[in-house]
Write a structure and sequence with these properties.
Elements (H helix, E strand, L loop, with lengths): L9 H5 L4 H15 L1 E3 H8 L3 H13 L3 E4 L2 E4 L7 E2 L6 H6 L2 H12 L7 E4 L3 H9 L6 E4 L2 H7 L5 E3 L4 E3 L4 E3 L1 H7 L4 E7 L2 E3 L2 E4 L2 H12 L1 E7 L7 E2 L2 E4 L6 E4 L5 H9 L3 E4 L6
Parallel strand pairs: 4-14, 5-6, 5-10, 6-7, 10-13, 13-16, 16-17
Antiparallel strand pairs: 1-3, 2-3, 8-9, 11-12, 12-15
Length: 277
């Protein structure tokens, strides 16, 4: 009678490295990225998420990484106060730091001249900018249906790209929208973000980020509209590095290492309520 085949652990079948080697690879990937999720590490290393959780518990105990919701943060040279992976609904985001967002939007509107062509990203702070632009003589390209409907009654002139409509806001995304936006040249791009740190600005959605990147690439001046509660934090995907930005409009001046990194990247900073536009 033939013996039953010996059961092999599924992680052993998928990963040929030792536990020590795997943990070293985890640290290297987290340090390189700043943050990696459990699912990303599991897929990258070919092991289960349970194995990654055990490894992260061990590495956290050794001080090699910092555990965060859904993953791990690098301890090497990054001051990350929060990792924001789950996008709240638009109504909730509008309520958060609403007065600061209104002030940021009004200051951003003061930068724009008549007859200019601008790109306005989706988001709660960019929505405040759109409200400040009602009745002005500018051309606005946006992938936000909420912003487009808000401004559709008259001036300014509003243009939407074609593509797939998704999300709770909702927004137009996809390759068709990207290609259409890449056909234009904008005087300004006003970009919202979920978070911001020494390495750049971040957002929750890969699909929305692809549109944001297209707007940044096709604009003469790139402006991040980010309130100070989002400083020294990171989210799912990076939109661009600090060096890609010309201007940050916020409600409080960034300090410490983050402020120094912005200065080194030559990002001009306007503080709403403190600087004239």
């Amino acid at each position: 009678m033939k013996a039953a085949p010996r059961e092999v652990d599924s992680d052993s079948r998928r990963s040929r490295v030792s536990a020590g080697e795997r943990q070293q690879l985890i640290v290297e990937r987290v340090v390189a990225a700043g943050f990696m999720s459990i699912s990303e590490l599991g897929a990258d290393l070919g092991v289960s998420e349970m194995t990654i959780r055990r490894d992260l518990d061990l590495l956290t105990g050794r001080g090699a990484v910092i555990r965060a919701h859904g993953g791990a943060i690098s301890v090497a040279g990054k001051k990350i106060e929060r990792v924001d992976l789950i996008e709240p609904g638009l109504d909730e985001r509008i309520r958060r730091n609403h007065a600061a967002k209104v002030a940021i939007g009004q200051m951003a509107a003061g930068l724009i001249s008549a007859n200019q062509t601008i790109a306005v990203d989706i988001g709660s702070t960019t929505l405040c900018l759109a409200q400040a632009l009602m009745g002005t003589d500018v051309r606005i390209f946006t992938n936000s249906l909420k912003i487009a409907l808000l401004l559709s009654a008259g001036a300014p002139r509003v243009y939407l790209p074609g593509g797939e409509i998704r999300g709770s806001e909702p927004s137009v995304i996809g390759s068709i929208a990207q290609k259409q936006l890449q056909s234009f040249r904008f005087d300004w791009a006003f970009i919202g973000a979920a978070s911001m740190d020494n390495d750049g600005i971040y957002d929750y959605s890969l699909e929305d980020t692809e549109i944001k990147q297209a707007l940044v690439a096709r604009s003469h001046k790139k402006v991040a509209l980010v309130d100070s509660s989002k400083f020294n934090s990171m989210s799912v995907v990076r939109i661009c590095e600090l060096q890609a930005l010309d201007l940050l409009i916020t409600d409080k001046p960034p300090n410490g290492q983050f402020g120094a990194e912005l200065k080194a990247a030559r990002v001009e900073i306007l503080v709403a309520g403190a600087n004239p536009p």
